[in-house]
Write a structure and sequence with these properties.
By secondary structure, this protein is of the alpha+beta class. The chain has one domain. The protein contains one helix and five strands, in the order βββαββ. A three-stranded antiparallel sheet has the order 1-2-3. Strands 4-5 form a two-stranded antiparallel ribbon. The longest helix is centred in the middle third of the chain and has 24 residues.
C-alpha cells in the first residue's frame, strides 16, 4: 500500500487498544496511520465537500468580464 500523504511504503501494524487489537497501516517515511475508521471519515468528508462545492456553484450568479484593453475590469451580472 502507498501512503496518501507522502507516497511512501506502508506496512501493517497491530496495536492493543484497551481490550481489543486494532490493525492499521503505518507509513515507513512519515509515520502516518491509516485504519478503517480514518478511511471511512475521509470518505464521508470528501463526499460532504463535493456536495458543498456543488451547492456553492449553483448559488453563485453567473458573472462576465466587462472592459476593454488596460481599462480596469468590472464584473456585471449576465442575468
Amino acid at each position: 500500500m502507498e501512503c496518501p500523504k507522502c507516497n511512501g511504503l506502508m506496512y501493517t501494524e497491530s496495536i492493543l487498544d484497551f481490550d481489543r487489537v486494532s490493525h492499521l497501516w503505518k507509513c515507513i517515511n512519515c509515520g502516518a496511520l491509516i485504519d478503517p475508521i480514518i478511511l471511512e471519515n475521509r470518505r464521508a468528508s470528501i463526499a460532504l465537500l463535493a456536495v458543498s462545492q456543488e451547492k456553492q456553484k449553483a448559488a453563485l450568479p453567473r458573472l462576465k468580464k466587462v472592459g476593454v484593453g488596460n481599462v480596469a475590469l468590472r464584473y456585471a451580472s449576465s442575468n
